[in-house]
């Protein structure tokens, strides 16, 4: 049952990304909601769930993106898993930790996407990508991940449902 | 006063009243003059009572009316909101219908077979400039097919799902088509850049291309027929070390406002048969 819910969640996020990206974009930069989802799930539920949700949402994203199938799947899966692994290394996952880790992961995933997406990656392209896409997108993603983590954490704790701060091992 | 006197007085009063009825008109006027001041005195409380009655009935009726007006106002506001919603919907439908009418009119006259499609999604990442259309493999769409509007070239189909297809826009660096400066007939490669602008590369170094020159497809690649509008030359640059000139193109299609497109499914690549013979005959 949980897997179906996860698939539905991934589908919803990908569809939101595909249809509302214009409204979500700030100065031409849109957040990668699929990446944010993978990271947040990783932080909240551990590396296995992060990996699984990342793989599913990445696959859906690949199906609607012009690039080859597999890139987003691998990157989002890795991001979810790494976010989950972070919960092992930090005693309690706090908001700032989510912010920093998501930003770093976003830069890494963005760089990998850049190398695959652009036919020629020279110094100029790299500079443009870093200053105009990678950094703003990283900030946007990390702020969204922080917001989602904080909100879910707060709701979860207030309802006494889960101890979201430490993740599931 | 005795009973007899009272009776006499009563009869006299009745007789007086009867006399008044039969008196000539002049006498009645005289009497009305005499009674005028009394009538005025009576008017004051009468008017007051009447005005009070009026105000009470006014207040009552206005209160009731206000109640009705308030109800009516609420209904009217709801009606206005509903009508505004309907109006917006109709306006939106009209705009979409107009756009599709233009597309369909172009489809009928264009020298190629096209399939109209609607845009149902846009970029799913910041690394590609793409859109998703509502026609796919089941509708006969294949990768590498050209996508246009009545204004000009939009991009190229890169992936086909059964019911949808992904179109990479001309402003994406992964799209390159052969273009031609319409005035000078110089050819080059039109390609997008990471910044989202469009360049025309490999323009001959001696080409007299100028700002504002229209750029069209040259028809040398398989997915676009010759002569479709791409845009206009915005600026031409050539560094000393470069072999070719580089033109910046201002695209004729506003990619951000697209709602419907035409996918080119087939076209005749050869010159039209109606071309006059002297135009294709070798010069003497």
Structural overview:
The complex is a heterodimer of chains A (169) and B (284). Chain A has a single domain, classed as Arp2/3 complex 21 kDa subunit ARPC3 (Orthogonal Bundle), CATH 1.10.1760. Chain A is 78% helix and 0% strand. Chain A has 6 helices and no strands. In chain A, α1 packs across α3 (47-64) and α2 runs parallel beside α4 (71-89). The longest helix of chain A has 36 residues, at 123-158. Residues 161-169 of chain A have low confidence and may be disordered. With 284 residues, chain B is α+β, with helices and mostly antiparallel strands. Chain B is 38% helix and 27% strand. Chain B has 3 helices and 12 strands, in the order ααββββββββββββα. In chain B, strands 1-2-5-4-3-12 form a 6-stranded antiparallel β-barrel. A 6-stranded antiparallel beta barrel of chain B has the order 6-7-8-11-10-9. The termini of chain B are far apart. Mean pLDDT of chain B is 81; it is low at 273-284. Chain A binds chain B through residues 14, 17-19, 21-22, 28-30, 32, 34, 61, 63-67, 72, 110, 113-114, 116-120, 125, 128-129, 132-133, 137, and chain B through 120-128, 130, 132, 158-159, 161, 164, 166, 168, 172-174, 194-196, 256.
């Amino acid at each position: 049952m949980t897997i179906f819910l996860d698939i539905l969640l991934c589908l919803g996020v990908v569809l939101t990304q595909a249809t509302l990206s214009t409204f979500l974009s700030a100065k031409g930069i849109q957040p990668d909601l699929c990446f944010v989802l993978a990271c947040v799930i990783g932080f909240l539920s551990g590396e296995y769930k992060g990996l699984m949700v990342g793989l599913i949402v990445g696959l859906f994203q690949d199906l609607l993106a012009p690039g080859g199938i597999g890139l987003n799947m691998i990157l989002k899966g890795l991001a979810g898993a790494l976010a989950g692994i972070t919960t092992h290394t930090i005693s309690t996952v706090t908001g700032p930790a989510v912010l920093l880790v998501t930003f770093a992961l976003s830069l890494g995933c963005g760089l990998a996407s850049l190398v695959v997406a652009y036919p020629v990656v020279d110094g100029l392209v790299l500079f443009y990508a870093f200053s105009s896409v990678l950094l703003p997108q990283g900030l946007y993603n990390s702020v969204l991940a922080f917001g989602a983590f904080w909100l879910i954490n707060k709701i979860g704790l207030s309802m006494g449902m889960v101890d979201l701060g430490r993740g599931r091992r | 006063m005795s009973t007899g006197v009272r009776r006499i007085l009563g009869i006299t009063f009745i007789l007086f009243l009867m006399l008044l009825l039969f008196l000539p008109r002049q006498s009645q006027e005289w009497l009305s003059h005499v009674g005028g001041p009394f009538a005025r005195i009576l008017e004051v409380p009468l008017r007051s009572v009447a005005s009070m009655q009026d105000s009470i009935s006014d207040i009552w009726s206005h209160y009731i009316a206000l109640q009705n007006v308030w109800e009516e106002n609420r209904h009217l506001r709801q009606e206005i909101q509903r009508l505004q919603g309907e109006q917006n919907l109709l306006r939106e439908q009209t705009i979409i219908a107009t756009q599709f009418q233009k597309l369909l009119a172009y489809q009928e006259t264009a020298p190629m077979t096209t399939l109209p499609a609607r845009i149902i999604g846009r970029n799913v990442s910041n690394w590609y400039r793409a859109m998703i259309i509502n026609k796919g493999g089941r509708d006969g769409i294949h990768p590498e097919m050209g996508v246009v509007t009545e204004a000009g070239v939009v991009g190229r189909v890169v992936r086909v799902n059964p019911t949808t297809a992904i179109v990479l826009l001309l402003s994406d660096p992964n799209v390159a088509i052969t273009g031609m400066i319409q005035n000078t007939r110089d050819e080059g490669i039109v390609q997008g850049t990471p910044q989202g602008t469009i360049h025309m590369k490999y323009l001959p170094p001696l080409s007299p291309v100028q700002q504002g020159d229209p750029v069209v497809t040259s028809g040398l690649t398989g997915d676009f027929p010759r002569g479709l509008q791409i845009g206009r030359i915005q600026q031409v640059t050539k560094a000393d070390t470069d072999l070719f000139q580089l033109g910046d193109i201002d695209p004729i299609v506003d990619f951000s406002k697209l709602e419907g497109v035409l996918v080119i499914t087939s076209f005749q690549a050869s010159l039209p048969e109606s071309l006059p013979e002297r135009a294709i005959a070798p010069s003497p």
